[in-house]
Every structure is written in structure tokens, then in C-alpha cells.
């Protein structure tokens, strides 16, 4: 069994995808497998179509990938990617994180990665190509991943609940690219003297953040279409659906305890962080949070 079978054999998932009107041809199973095969191997639609288990034309594969991705996102994403919605769920996640890493009230870590795309068409005044041009001069979608202690991804909308203060005392851990906020624990910059309490704090949260970096590597090892050497030949809206579909399937794999590969190593240095921040009153709360954690660690 390959990981594409997780979608095909999981009754609820197959039913939800089948109900999506955009998928209307006869063999749903073949179409889902074609899309998942594309996610796995990258941008080679002709290779996917010539797979002896699939046999679809390249143009058909391209269309199927968009349709299946749309269906997965609109029918499955909210089932498998969700923020702990109740106080009890948040306490359970925070307790698990504290047991694993020794920090109270933390729900997980956050990181960014760039997914390469082809040059967008210049036909939408509200979404110009320049918005996708990164600092290296290439086109990409800056994708922000949030991860709980259970190795599952969160959506940006869910993480915004932290920003808005709608879930109380909890916070995430990010790298120095994020601004210091009451909901975001970040390293001290510049790096404190080695051996100091602040230095030990930096080392501690850096080690904890390795979990989300590792997960980013794992998802790119599973879904090679997300690797920087496999440019997504889709316009940004379709590319975003593909990215979200891969994250949804990853969470499905994790829920069903499917064996995961070792992470891909990456030399990517682009880390444009995009969570909106509050100013003024948030800085003092952020410093208090940081000092409390420093005292706890030491």
C-alpha cells in the first residue's frame, strides 16, 4: 500500500471527495491516485499519466490535480487540520508539550518555507505577480506552517486566534524572524554571551523549534512537488490548493500512524514571516513572557 491508498480506502474521505461536484468523471479512484501521485513525484504530469495504474493524458492529469486539490481542501482540510477548539483540548496539547519540552502553556512551533511556482500571469490587478517574487528574484508562495506537539499542521486562520488573544494565555515558538509578542516566544537577538541564562534560553527554544523544521523536511520528502527543484507549474491559486492538499494528507497520514520518511535536508534561507503583529502594549507582555520562561529554564 502506498500513501495514496489512505485517501482511496478511507471511507469518509472518499465520500467527501466524491460529493464535490468538480469531480464528475467515472473513476474517482484513478483520479485521486493520479493527483496524489503528482504530489509525490513533482511536476512530471506526463510521467504520472503514463503510470500503468493510471493511464491518463497529460492535460487530463493537470486538470485532475486541480480538481482533486480543490475537493480535498474544501471537503477534508477542516476535518484534518484544525486548532484545538475547546479549553480542554488546548490544555491537553499544552500538557503534552510541557511533558515533552518542559515549557508551560505552549501549543507548538511555527516556521515558514517557500514553495516555488512558475511566473504568475499578469491578468489580475488584485493579485499581481510581484507579490510572489521573493528576495532571490524567483517566484514562490511563502507558506507558513504551524505545528502542534502531535506533528500536525495548522492553518494561518487558526493561528490568528493567538494573535487576536481569543485563546488566553497560550503561545507559539518562532525563530528570530518573528517579532516578539505575548503569543510568540522568540530567541534573544543578538545572541547573548555563551553560558549566560539568556544563552541557555536561546539554546532551549532553538532545540524545541527543530521539530517544526524536521516536519517541513518530512513533508517535502513525501510530497516532492513542494521541493524547490520541482517548480509547481500552476498559477498561485491552484498552487495554494496543492500545498494545502499536501498538508491535509500529511495530517491524515499522521492520524493513521502511517510510517513517515526521514526529512529532506534543505539549504533554503528565505524566511519571510507574515503573521500580523500588535504594537505598543504587546511588547511589555512579550518581555514578561520571555523573562518568565528564562527564569523557568534556569
From TrEMBL:
Residues 169-251 form the DDE Tnp4 domain. GO terms for molecular function: hydrolase activity; metal ion binding; nuclease activity. GO terms for cellular component: nucleus. The keyword Cell cycle does not apply. It comes from the Eukaryota. It is found in: Nucleus. Its cofactor is a divalent metal cation. Keywords: Hydrolase, Metal-binding, Nuclease, Nucleus. The keyword Transferase does not apply. Belongs to the HARBI1 family. This is (African queen) hypothetical protein.
Amino acid at each position: 500500500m502506498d500513501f495514496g491508498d489512505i485517501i482511496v480506502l478511507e471511507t469518509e474521505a472518499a465520500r467527501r471527495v466524491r460529493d464535490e461536484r468538480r469531480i464528475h468523471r467515472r473513476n474517482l479512484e484513478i483520479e485521486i491516485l493520479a493527483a496524489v501521485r503528482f504530489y509525490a513525484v513533482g511536476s512530471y504530469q506526463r510521467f504520472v499519466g503514463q503510470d500503468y495504474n493510471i493511464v491518463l493524458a497529460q492535460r487530463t492529469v493537470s486538470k485532475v490535480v486541480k480538481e482533486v486539490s480543490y475537493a480535498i481542501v474544501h471537503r477534508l482540510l477542516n476535518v484534518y487540520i484544525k486548532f484545538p477548539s475547546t479549553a480542554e483540548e488546548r490544555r491537553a496539547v499544552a500538557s503534552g508539550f510541557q511533558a515533552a519540552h518542559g515549557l508551560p502553556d505552549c501549543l507548538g512551533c511555527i516556521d515558514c518555507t517557500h514553495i516555488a511556482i512558475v511566473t504568475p500571469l499578469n491578468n489580475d490587478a488584485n493579485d499581481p505577480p510581484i507579490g510572489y517574487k521573493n528576495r532571490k528574484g524567483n517566484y514562490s508562495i511563502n507558506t507558513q506552517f504551524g505545528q502542534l506537539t502531535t506533528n500536525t499542521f495548522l492553518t494561518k486562520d487558526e493561528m490568528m486566534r493567538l494573535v487576536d488573544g481569543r485563546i488566553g494565555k497560550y503561545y507559539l515558538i518562532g525563530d528570530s524572524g518573528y517579532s516578539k509578542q505575548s503569543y510568540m516566544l522568540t530567541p534573544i537577538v543578538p545572541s547573548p554571551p555563551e553560558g549566560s541564562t539568556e544563552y541557555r534560553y536561546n539554546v532551549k527554544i532553538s532545540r524545541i523549534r527543530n521539530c517544526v523544521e524536521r516536519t517541513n523536511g518530512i513533508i517535502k520528502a513525501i510530497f516532492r512537488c513542494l521541493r524547490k527543484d520541482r517548480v509547481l507549474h500552476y498559477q498561485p491559486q491552484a498552487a495554494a490548493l496543492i500545498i494545502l492538499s499536501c498538508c491535509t494528507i500529511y495530517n491524515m497520514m499522521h492520524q493513521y500512524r502511517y510510517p513517515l520518511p526521514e526529512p529532506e535536508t534543505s539549504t533554503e534561507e528565505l524566511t519571510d514571516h507574515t503573521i500580523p503583529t500588535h504594537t505598543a502594549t504587546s511588547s511589555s507582555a512579550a518581555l514578561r513572557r520571555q523573562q518568565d520562561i528564562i527564569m523557568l529554564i534556569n
